[in-house]
Amino acid sequence: MKIGIVTFHWAVNYGAVLQAYALQDYLRGLGHDACLIDYKPYNRDHNLKNFVLNRKLPHPFQYVREALKDRLFEDFRRDYLVRTKRYGSLEELRQDPPLCDIYISGSDQVLHPRTLMRGERRPAPVYMLDFGPENILRAGYAVSFGCTAYPPEAAEVARKYINRFDLLSVREKTGAGVAESLGYNGRLWVVPDPTILAGASVYDRILSGVSGLSGKSGGSDVSEGGTATYLLHGKDSLNAVIEKDFGKTVPLNGCSIAQWIAGIRNASRLVTNSFHGTVFALLFHIPFVALLETGAAAGMNDRFTTLLSRLGLEGRILPDYGGRRAVKIIGSEIDWANTDSLMEDYAREGRDFISMLLSARQ
To answer: In what residue span(s) does the Polysaccharide pyruvyl transferase domain sit (predicted)?
Structure first.
């Protein structure tokens, strides 16, 4: 079958790109013609116009770094993702939609209220699949709302489109409640992020393309092991504190996607506030501590508890970095055989949902 996936494959974020790759790779491995619908809003392109309109003027160097990093990511997209032609707006998708048997939205925070309301600087329900012929089966796989309660203005818009999904699964337990609050009238499933679906071996193909598994990240060699850190949302300042507790750190940012994976696989330990950083630590048996978000980003924290409570590892979550607590957590042993078994059980639930989805279209 022809399957079109719309997600954040264009984002300059390791987890976003890798979850897109993982879902596409899994579906293609089943023999289906799966591709990424290459929707990226024009306002997310790196150019002078968006530099001004996206209010990046106070942060020119950060903007340039992200643009350069995006070039590395585009190399990966070109080599590993099968994409349709480029779509830059909902209008373009509605006028000339890719013809598929199934549309899948997700995974990642594709149903975040900010994306719905401001993804194109105006409401654009692309990730609610409001495009294409009516006879195409529409599904959400492990979608995330990125919040525990939808803001009223966004909820009013979302209610118009939420039942475009014939089948809907969410990544976080709280996502089921959000979907119900928006008026979704079908059954809801909680399934794992695509990066978990097929286990660690699916990334061997990517790692084989990294000569010696080496590369530079933040001035450090990602092949050298030691304490890796992957810190998002302005938390890089924690590296200096972490070094006092664990010695030299290897910050995993600014490297290629393959080098990022290698950096985690080769690490002795990982400190991260990234959900996907946590996932890859689990896949590669790396002792880790997961830091939660605060403030407006706190709505994203349930992704950690949904996953780690399934594995009996919720004790590895910290509300904020604390040296003694982090050292104690990192030093505690993980029963990897049991963790692998529980991860496989969780992955099977995702594969079962996909099997049901494919059967519904046949």
So the answer is: 13-291
Render pLDDT for 115-156 as a digit per residue (tens, 0 to 9): 999 999 999 999 999 999 999 999 999 999 999 999 999 999
Helix orientation angle between 173-181 and 302-310, rounded to the nearest 10 degrees:
130
- DSSP three-state, residue 227: strand
Structure-token pair, residue 92: 């373009």
Q: Rounded CA gap, 213 and 193, in Å? A: 25
Phi-psi group of 2: left, alpha or beta (phi > 0 → left; psi -120 to 50 → alpha; rest → beta) = beta
How does pLDDT run across 350-361, given as a tens digit for each residue? 999 999 999 998
The 3-state DSSP composition of the chain as helix, strand, coil percent (nearest 5) reads: 50, 15, 40
Unique residue bearing structure tokens 């585009």: 74
Residues near 311 by beta carbon (within 8 Å), at least 6 away in sequence: 282, 339, 342, 343, 346
Query: What are 176's two structure tokens?
Result: 């089921």
Burial tier of 349 (Cβ tally within 10 Å: 0-12, 13-18, 19+) = middle
Closest CA to 109 of 94, 101, 119: 119
Q: Rounded distance, CA 92 to CA 134, Å?
A: 17
